[in-house]
Design a protein that fits this description.
This protein is an alpha/beta fold and 255 residues long. The protein is built from 9 helices and 6 strands. InterPro entries: AB_hydrolase_fold, Cutinase/axe.
């Protein structure tokens, strides 16, 4: 995995996906709107994980159980494989388009974004200005009104972890960043609604020599998933009343 991450910066050749998902060349969204639940939680899984059950699944179940009938969970349909330049580019475009079509189709819907490992890089780069991204530089940007509807962002084992940021949480060593650290301040606009969790000796977010990957998988049972879930739950406004069946059944036609 370390080698796959380093290829993102060491190979100067633009991936084929840079043209395929270029928002200027191909402006039509690659995502279709889904249900207009009050809250849409989008997960971006880590490399090699199943889209049906992955590191972030327990977190989303806790959030859904806390707000029954109000939360729709969608796992980002990107490859999450070892070719992070190609797959990550699709992931960034797909996340931007998903939020865009949902914002247009569902006027009251609010968003939560959660990413693990490669998925954390995808989420962070989708939120950042294209010039500061490692993947998805051609895929466009979130409209300001869409960005304002993001209530919470939670990341784990982030290769772009920057230890000095105010939203960095965990047992990480101060001054030690991830394998591909993000430019300081790149996500300043989301700082008050973002938590980026990293444990010491996680070689992905701590650039350590512990390459057995053991620490990178400890988020599942070290309490940080529950902490992230609690952060999300308190940021979901209480609804005045349950949404009607008509409100939740189908998205409005954006066209």
């Amino acid at each position: 995995m370390r080698e796959s991450l380093m290829e993102v910066v060491e190979d100067p050749t633009p991936p084929k996906a840079a043209e395929t998902y270029d928002a200027r060349l191909h402006p039509d969204p690659i995502a279709d709107p889904v249900e207009c639940a009050p809250y849409l939680v989008v997960t971006a899984r880590g490399t090699g994980e199943s889209s049906e059950e992955h590191m972030l699944s327990p977190l989303t179940r806790v959030v859904s159980d806390a707000r029954p009938g109000e939360v729709l969970t969608l796992d980002l349909d990107y490859p999450a494989d070892s070719d992070m330049n190609e797959g990550g580019t699709r992931g960034v475009r797909l996340l931007i388009d998903t939020l865009g079509v949902q914002a247009e189709a569902c006027a009251e819907q609010r968003f939560v974004l959660i990413g693990y490992s490669q998925g954390a890089m995808v989420v962070g780069d989708a939120l950042a200005a294209p010039a500061t991204r490692l993947v998805g530089a051609t895929t466009g940007e979130l409209a300001p009104g869409v960005a304002d509807r993001i209530l919470a962002v939670v990341l784990y084992g982030n290769p772009r972890f920057t230890s000095s940021e105010t939203y960095s949480f965990g047992t990480f060593d101060a001054g030690v960043d991830g394998l591909l650290p993000r430019q300081a301040g790149s996500l300043a606009g989301f700082a008050d609604r973002l938590r980026d969790y990293c444990v010491a000796w996680d070689f992905v977010c701590q650039r350590s020599l512990d390459l057995d990957g053991g620490a990178h998988g400890t988020y599942y049972d070290n309490g940080m998933l529950l902490d992230g879930a609690a952060f999300v739950i308190v940021r979901l406004p209480l609804l005045d009343s349950a949404p009607s069946a008509a409100d939740r059944a189908e998205p409005r036609d954006p066209g």
